[in-house]
Amino acid sequence: MIKAIFFDFDGVLTNFEYGSYTVCYNLSQKTGIPTDKLVSCYHQHTGGLDIGKIEDKDFWGAFCRCVGCEIGITLLDYAFRNVSMNEKMLELAKKLRKNYKVGIITDNSKGRFNAIIDEFKLRDIFDALILSADVGATKKEEVIFRRALDSLKLKPQECIFIDNSARNLEVPKRMGFKTIHYDFQKKDFDSLLTQLKTLIRI
User: Fold this and answer.
1) Other CB atoms closer than 10 Å to residue 128's CB: what's the count?
2) Domains of the chain: which residue ranges?
3) Beta-carbon contacts of residue 88 (< 8 Å; ≥ 6 apart)
4) 32 membership: H or E segment, kind and range
5) pLDDT for 100-131, tens place per residue?
6) Cα separations in angstroms, 10 against 71, 157, 197, 198
7) CATH superfamily for domain 4-16+85-197
8) What burial class does residue 136 get, using C-beta atoms within 10 Å of its C-beta: 0-12 exposed, 13-18 middle, 19+ buried?
């Protein structure tokens, strides 16, 4: 019997597929620096960010040198908070919460996700917010899914996990979760609902 539905964040609950792209796109809008250049430098200097080994302030100097421009770190908070949310998905989560527990499992940095939690009051919508940087592991490992299960005192067979990356569904599926791949490119919300309805009542 299904008791909880977990959502990925970027690419499922948002209208951008990758968090790093969202951050860099927002920085580009404020600085005029091409998004592609910002993304390249961001990826070069943020290793370990999603598993909590470094914090945002730790890479900022090297990031700015890579970009070739001093960018005020205060812009980072704006870049974190300015997220285009998928309102249909948020409404679905709210609807599901009437009969099930709902949560988020995301590979994200503490700085970014804490800003987003605050900006969009996610604790008022979701019962569990599981962050890779808090756990010290990404969705490639069982430990982050174990943390999600422990947070709600559930078994894998009692949970559904929705992600826009098929690769991120491999581990939870192997553990016993029901999994649904949300095709971000097609943005086929109706297909997602159809799949959900085979598993739960909506």
Assistant:
1) 19
2) 4-16+85-197, 19-81
3) 189
4) none
5) 999 999 999 999 999 999 999 999 999 999 99
6) 25, 24, 23, 24
7) HAD superfamily/HAD-like (3.40.50.1000)
8) middle
Q: Select from 151, 155, 197, 199 the least CA-distant residue to 177.
A: 155
- Which two three-digit tokens encode residue 188? 């086929």
Which residues in the chain belong to E strands, given as ranges? 4-7, 101-106, 128-131, 159-163, 178-181
Going from the first residue of the chain to its last (202 residues), give the mean pLDDT of each consecutive group of 10, the final group possibly shorter.
97 94 96 96 93 91 94 94 96 97 97 96 97 97 98 98 97 98 93 95 86
Nearest to 60 by CA among 41, 85, 88: 41
